[in-house]
Design goal:
The complex is a heterodimer of chains A (about 300) and B (about 325).
Chain A (H helix, E strand, L loop, with lengths): L1 H14 L15 H36 L11 H15 L5 H25 L7 H23 L3 H8 L17 H19 L2 H6 L4 H22 L6 H13 L3 H26 L7 H21 L1
Helix pairs in contact in A: 1-11, 2-7, 2-9, 2-10, 2-11, 3-4, 3-5, 3-9, 4-9, 7-9, 7-11, 10-11, 10-12, 11-12
Chain B lengths: L2 H21 L6 H33 L11 H16 L9 H24 L6 H25 L2 H11 L8 H28 L3 H6 L4 H23 L5 H12 L5 H26 L6 H20 L5
Helix pairs in contact in B: 1-2, 1-11, 2-7, 2-9, 2-10, 2-11, 3-4, 3-5, 3-6, 3-9, 4-9, 7-9, 10-11, 11-12
Classes of the chains: A mainly alpha (about 300), B mainly alpha (about 325).
């Protein structure tokens, strides 16, 4: 219950923080402020919450499937694959719609995550750090390819600009794709234990009467949906899927039924916190959330690695 | 083939690459084009030597073939330092701080950083290499985010100073910085010459080196200083080229079956110049891509790195 409370507080702060000074009592008789509130503040806060909890859950699913704590969209190349998908959509179909971009990015992410999970299941060593290392390298290969094509088409700078995670452009009418995250969250709730079992390996899962392939596919599709939706609506936000589940499990334990709701809530809280911070530090300007999360998340991840080693 | 012949061969290749790069398709305003090309050539030579030498030294002192300074986040921290200096000093002076002053201040900070690296890598001998690698990569990403963070806070006038650091490009025409960087490289190499014989001993491992009478801790610190200087030189000139070092150093080990650092260092330096110059030539004139060589090198290097990881995975069960 504490988490719900904290989430509500942060949402409240997020709703009433910004260049336009809005007080809740003014909403009812100031048309102008009400418009800002409805068109910008509410969509932004909703997007932050949804993407935060979606990313946390996506990270958890990947960690269950690969049975490795350091695997996440950031450390498996999934984020880079989503980026590549958006880029390819723009290159092949210049005036591609939002749905078209989502479709491309979803396809790329799914394909490359499948490749990665296949790779993880093929190498028998489950060394904690080896797999995320390979994932990061995989991501940088994808990135090099994307940069190459972006260079060829002269859009490097544009790509860098709009792929840096940033919520300030979230307005009514441009963010609705994030509602696709909701079904992903629901799926995660229903399949949570099954992902864990599938992570134990093919024969183990089949022995327990599960269809291994379909479970893995559902898991990866869920992850890909969350990742590509957040990449096309707000850009790349690193580390969330990695840190949130790990931090939560340090406190709540490994029981996925217990930790799943906590992960969903703390993912949302983490993003809200980072975004509010980014809005306050250089007020009246803003620091993109991709950068804030990159700094805070990077430090937390280092702490996690150093702690795990002991 | 003897090592000497291999060396002559690679020098020959370098000369051909340089000749092609400078003289190919030379028409129009000769003095303008020639001076432009020569400056770029100079930049690539300085960068190639720095990257090749620093990678081999780092691999010798860490005792493995997968770690290089750039993979351990050296380049990103240099950029972070440059940004930090502009961030702190940029506002005070009426005009923004000059690139040269920035270069020297950032080098001083790099020397401090190499002490930190010393404690991270060498203080605890039992550390798993893959942990170090992951830590290095995360630090690199973190430093990048931190630099970006400061870029947003920096005053736009001051930002123009650091804007150059962010993208790898061999077409920058900064002769003053090139001269300073070349000078730094020159003196660093002279200093390194004195340490060269010890490198061969260091290759045998920490215990053996100490047994043979090397002051291990001091030597490693000195070498880390050298590495910081070299990385600063290459990063200040063209920005980060993450995977060049790992590519050329491992190619050198494959091609030269020797452990003598006099050979390894020179060969690797020449090889990385060849990679840069020939690569840039091929991309510009043969393939006619409007891309820079670093993207291609990063791609090949990353694939090669995966291969190396794959090969070494059996050792770490």
């Amino acid at each position: 219950m504490g988490f719900v409370f904290v989430l509500l507080i942060f949402s409240w702060i997020s709703l009433f923080t910004g260049v336009r000074d809005i007080h809740y009592s003014e909403l009812w008789h100031d048309q102008d402020k009400l418009l800002v509130f409805l068109n910008s503040r509410i969509p932004r806060t909703l997007a932050l919450g949804l993407i935060g909890s979606g990313s946390g859950i996506a990270g958890l699913i990947m960690q269950q499937l690969s049975q490795n704590r350091f695997v996440s969209p950031t450390t498996s190349g999934a984020l880079d694959a989503a980026k590549m998908g958006v880029l390819m959509a723009l290159i092949w179909i210049p005036d591609v719609s939002l749905m078209g971009r989502l479709f491309f990015s979803l396809g790329f992410t799914f394909l490359f995550s499948m490749l990665f999970i296949l790779f993880v299941s093929k190498i028998q060593i489950k060394n904690n750090v080896f797999i995320p290392l390979v994932g990061i390298m995989f991501g940088s290969i994808l990135n090099a390819v994307s940069t190459f094509f972006a260079f060829k088409n002269n859009i490097v700078q544009n790509v860098q600009e709009w792929l840096l995670g940033d919520f300030s452009a979230i307005l009514q009418g441009q963010y609705e794709a994030i509602y696709f995250i909701l079904p992903a969250v629901v799926v995660a709730y229903f399949y949570a234990e099954k992902f864990t079992l599938a992570g134990m390996g093919h024969s183990f899962a089949v022995n327990l009467g599960m269809s291994y392939t379909s479970i893995v596919n559902i898991g990866l599709l869920t992850v890909s949906l969350v990742v590509s939706v957040s990449v096309i609506t707000v850009g790349v936000i690193p580390f969330v899927g990695l840190i949130v589940p790990n931090m939560v499990r340090l406190f709540v334990g490994d029981n996925i039924r217990k930790s799943l709701p906590v992960i969903a809530f703390s993912g949302a809280i983490f993003l809200l916190f980072c975004d509010i911070l980014g809005r306050i530090i250089v007020y009246p300007y803003e620091i993109p959330i991709g950068v804030t999360v990159g700094v805070i998340g990077g430090i937390l991840f280092l702490v996690l690695i150093l702690k795990k080693r002991g | 083939m003897k090592n000497r012949d291999k060396f002559i061969l690679i020098i020959g290749v370098l000369v051909i690459a340089i000749g092609l790069f400078v003289a190919f398709d030379l028409k129009g305003n000769l003095s303008y084009i020639l001076s432009r090309r020569l400056i770029r050539l100079g930049t690539m030579l300085v960068v190639g030597i720095s990257v090749g030498v620093s990678s081999v030294i780092f691999q010798t002192i860490t005792g493995n073939r997968i770690l290089t300074p750039s993979i351990m986040g050296y380049e990103s921290i240099f950029i972070l330092f440059q940004t930090l200096i502009v961030f702190i000093l940029g506002d005070q002076a009426l005009q923004a701080i000059s690139q040269e002053a920035n270069f020297f201040l950032a080098i001083c900070l790099m020397l401090l950083f190499s002490l930190g690296m010393y404690f991270l890598v060498f203080n605890n001998q039992h550390k798993n290499m893959f942990y170090l690698l992951l830590i290095g990569m995360v630090m690199g990403a973190l430093f990048q985010s931190a630099s970006q963070f400061m870029h947003i806070l920096i005053d736009p006038n001051a930002f123009s100073v650091i804007q150059n650091f962010m993208f790898v490009s061999f077409s920058k025409m900064n002769t003053k910085l090139l001269a300073i960087a070349a000078g730094t490289l020159f003196f660093t190499l002279i200093y390194l010459r004195k340490l060269m014989p010890y490198l061969d001993v260091l290759r045998l491992g920490r215990e053996q080196a100490i047994n043979l009478g090397v002051n291990y801790n001091r030597l490693v610190k000195q070498l880390l200083f050298v590495i910081s200087l070299l990385v600063s030189v290459s990063t200040a000139l063209v920005g980060p080229i993450t995977f060049l070092g790992i590519l050329v150093s491992n190619l050198t080990y494959e091609l030269l079956k020797t452990h003598k650092h006099a050979w390894l260092l020179t060969y690797c330096a020449v090889l990385s110049c060849v990679c840069l110059i020939a690569g840039q030539f091929l991309i510009e004139h043969v393939l006619q891509f409007s891309t820079t060589v670093s993207i291609v090198i990063n791609f090949i290097g990353a694939v090669y790195f995966m291969f190396l990881l794959w090969k070494t995975r059996k050792l770490i069960r």
